[in-house]
Amino acid sequence: MPNALDQAANAGTTPVRDAHRFDEDALAAWMRANVADFAGPLRVEQFKGGQSNPTYRLTTPGASYVLRRKPPGDLVKGAHDVLREARILSALADTPVPVARLHGTCDDEAVIGTPFFVMEMVEGRIFWDATFPDVDTSERSRYFDAMNATIAALHSLDYRSLGLSDYGRPGNYFERQIARWSRQYLEDADAGRDAAMDAVLAWLPQAIPAGDETSIVHGDFRCDNMIFHPTEPRILAVLDWELSTLGHPLADFAYHAMMYRMPPDIVAGLGGADIAALGIPSERDYVAAYCARTGRSGMPDYDFYVAFNFFRIAAIFHGIKGRVVRGTASSAHARERAAAFPRLARLAVDAMEACR
User: Fold this and answer.
1) Where are the beta strands (DSSP E) in 70-166?
2) pLDDT tens digits, the chain, 356 residues: what are they?
């Protein structure tokens, strides 16, 4: 995996990659018919960032847009559902959760080869480094507070009133997720077994906290999936809703707060950073701020939620390791991700042991 701190590798655009080219004239014709006030000529570039769904910047003399499409080729059933992503953007448009405005969706594969949607181009800053190095120390806490307020606002929404009752399966989130990722890990014999992973896998089902909650969850709420105002500690749009569903809000929050323990070379994280010197709130204070915003007296099972999330991401990287062994990994950075698997499993154990 490319170093999460390497902004040059992720930021900006590049000419459209050969595998992701499409008929730009057909897209322009569709936009003339479906996007208000569209006027060409149209220029198409591809964003560098590591989105699993190819993402493009569309530029005309008078406006800029973003196109997200399903990747071409044979895909796992249900994966890369960009129209589902468009649905959540539409549902959140008038809520306190900032998202890009949706201009239109297309399920006709005859246009550019796959379904796609077009949304507004939100201009601002994306931070690929969780230490926010370009922000003054005196201001960093306000950026973290903006992230905290946004995820709390998301989890406070009434998904039923937004027409999202069928956006996922309410209830038993941890049971279902643990079973899913355990099965994937155990069935991939090529990637081998890991003692730390085995220990967490055996412990998790027995340690699920009592009680259940359901909310809209983002699934990948990280600093590099947000566009911040160019100069202010304010989020203009939360991006990359591909993994969003109905799930447990504390699992979603802990995935986000996992940044405090995540090594920065794996995923944008604060592991090893002197957060006090950087002016970043402590993990304890960050959890407390979320609890205050969501009306909780505390989060006594927080380390379970963190252990679950490290287990989940470790299982994902274990699957990448299996594909590397079989020679079917498509990413140029798959070997680096595979090599990170044991470290993630160990971090899951550390969180598990904090529960005991």
Assistant:
1) 102-106, 116-120
2) 344 445 555 567 788 887 788 999 999 999 999 999 999 899 999 987 555 678 899 999 999 999 999 877 554 444 458 899 999 999 999 999 999 999 999 999 999 999 999 999 999 999 999 999 999 999 999 999 999 999 999 999 999 999 999 999 998 999 999 999 999 999 999 999 999 999 999 999 999 999 899 999 999 999 999 999 999 999 999 999 988 999 999 999 999 999 999 999 998 999 999 999 999 999 999 999 999 999 999 999 999 999 999 999 999 999 989 988 888 765 667 888 899 999 999 999 999 999 87
Using alpha carbons, list the distances in angstroms from residue 70 to 114, 225, 240, 279: 6, 18, 13, 40
What is residue 125's DSSP assignment?
Answer: B
Q: Which H or E element spans position 56?
A: strand 55-59
Helices (H) and strands (E) in the chain, counts: 12, 10
Kind and range of the H or E element at 339?
A: helix 334-354
The C-alpha atoms of residue 195 and residue 199 are separated, in whole angstroms, by 6
What are the tokens at 200? 């967490």
Q: 130 near 81, Cβ under 8 Å? A: no
> Residue 71 carries which DSSP code?
P
65/103 Cα distance (integer angstroms): 9
Cβ–Cβ contacts within 10 Å for residue 171, how many? 13
Output the pTM of the full model: 0.90
